[in-house]
Design brief:
Helix content: 55-70%
Number of helices: 7
Number of strands: 0
Largest sheet: none
GO molecular function: malate dehydrogenase (decarboxylating) (NADP+) activity
Shape: elongated
Protein name: Malic enzyme N-terminal domain-containing protein
Number of domains: 2
Radius of gyration: 16 Å
Structural class: mainly alpha
Distance between the termini: 54 Å
Length: 105
């Protein structure tokens, strides 16, 4: 009984699978390692490659910069925040001079 209670509590405290991917506070996108993907039931739910947060940041940064207006950049950034807060804040902190006027206007 105790083992099943712990498993239930662990599941409630830390979601797995699609529920994890829908939680922007916990979602790391493609930064989940192969081991994490298996343990957290993410296999098949993410692209079959691992990309570090730094690699993700570089990719997202180039995507934001091709947006033609500040409104488009704002929409892109808020969409990122809704999916992956850690990556959003890493990007904003590292590029604060570029993005603060867009986020706080």
């Amino acid at each position: 009984m105790k083992k099943s209670k712990n498993k239930l509590a662990n599941t409630l405290l830390f979601p797995k699978g699609i529920e994890l991917l829908h939680n922007p506070l916990l979602n790391k996108g493609t930064a989940f390692t192969a081991e994490e993907r298996k343990e957290l039931q993410l296999e098949g739910l993410l692209p079959p490659f691992v990309m570090s947060q730094e690699e993700q940041k570089i990719k997202v940064l180039s995507s934001v910069r091709v947006q033609t207006t500040d409104l488009d950049k704002y929409i892109y950034l808020t969409s990122l925040q809704d999916r992956n807060e850690a990556l959003f804040y890493r990007l904003v902190i590292d590029e604060i001079e570029e993005f603060m006027p867009i986020i706080y206007t």
